[in-house]
Design a protein that fits this description.
InterPro entries: Dimeric_a/b-barrel
Number of domains: 1
CATH topology: Alpha-Beta Plaits
Protein name: YCII-related domain-containing protein
CATH class: Alpha Beta
Length: 107
């Protein structure tokens, strides 16, 4: 089995209402349960990033497609990883997407 990185992109905000926050967490917990042992690292949401460009220029806004979080999974190939990502709860918001990349083991 190969490892894949899911990078969640979007500029949405975490729910502030307790019921909405619980519903969101329940959706993620359910999805992770469905993925089972394929989840290597459940990851985390991330805060607003900075981007360092050539010449040392820094952008402070996360760019045009900011990273919202990540997860690492195992799958037999990238098509399997894509199929697993299609049920990701973040995709209920049209402002979000899941980027999928194979992890290349170097060591």
């Amino acid at each position: 089995m190969a490892k894949f990185l899911y990078v969640y992109h979007g500029s949405g905000k975490m729910p502030t209402d307790e019921a909405e926050r619980k519903a969101a967490m329940d959706a993620w917990t359910g999805w992770y349960a469905k993925l089972g042992s394929a989840v290597i690292d459940g990851g985390n949401p991330v805060g607003m990033s900075k981007t360092v460009l050539p010449g040392g220029k820094v952008e402070n806004n996360g760019g045009s497609n900011p990273t919202a979080g990540y997860t690492i999974i195992e799958a037999k190939d990238i098509d399997d990883a894509v199929a697993k990502a299609k049920d990701c709860p973040i995709l209920t918001d049209p402002g979000f997407s899941v980027e999928i990349a194979p992890i290349v083991e170097m060591m």
